[in-house]
């Protein structure tokens, strides 16, 4: 006789952020949009626009310390990778379409944003997405599929991994540990893949010597369990002849620019990003 009992929770990830049930279903916790800033950021005009069912576009006109404009996007992917990459690529196509006078655009974007100066950036999982989308954009621009040209790629402690364990993986981090990393990759990678899949281990993406990648900036935390994988990728890119700038903040852990925004290291990391944008524009 078939078991008609109610599906039970077999895995509760991060106290209900994701629940896996015995029937194979996945239930995600309520996704709360970031609250509006309470501090006075009048020097940085910004605006959110809903882009799709799980994402939005944020436009920000950066202060005088950085003379470019940027657009960012946030996603809550409902399936495994590469769904998040596809969403990010759709956002780039949206930005690409804004260059046309025939497209109706929010006047705020017309007055504040320069759609010819686009940087792809992200931290942690967002850094992983920014890397893969930046590689795609380099090829898409050459193929004519994307008219805008990415000026630079900025990766903050990107969420990379691999099957091989490294010395930094043994760090006793209160922020992020190997068990958490392995769990997230198990839930994110295509079924049947291991952590050497190129989505996780970008060194496996293949030879990038012919890829027209823009300059890349890495902000790396010295106490991050992912540090070694990030530095391996930096060396791989340099070996492919790419322009790579690396800043390692030795005393910091994964997520430090978001978790300790007012600390000296976080402020210095922002200064490095601003300097990179100014030089690359």
Automatic annotation (TrEMBL):
<feature type="domain" description="Alpha/beta hydrolase fold-3">
    <location>
        <begin position="77"/>
        <end position="257"/>
    </location>
</feature>
<feature type="active site">
    <location>
        <position position="124"/>
    </location>
</feature>
<dbReference type="Pfam" id="PF07859">
    <property type="entry name" value="Abhydrolase_3"/>
</dbReference>
<dbReference type="InterPro" id="IPR013094">
    <property type="entry name" value="AB_hydrolase_3"/>
</dbReference>
<dbReference type="InterPro" id="IPR029058">
    <property type="entry name" value="AB_hydrolase_fold"/>
</dbReference>
<protein>
    <recommendedName>
        <fullName>Alpha/beta hydrolase fold-3 domain-containing protein</fullName>
    </recommendedName>
</protein>
<dbReference type="InterPro" id="IPR033140">
    <property type="entry name" value="Lipase_GDXG_put_SER_AS"/>
</dbReference>
<dbReference type="InterPro" id="IPR050466">
    <property type="entry name" value="Carboxylest/Gibb_receptor"/>
</dbReference>
<dbReference type="GO" id="GO:0016787">
    <property type="term" value="F:hydrolase activity"/>
</dbReference>
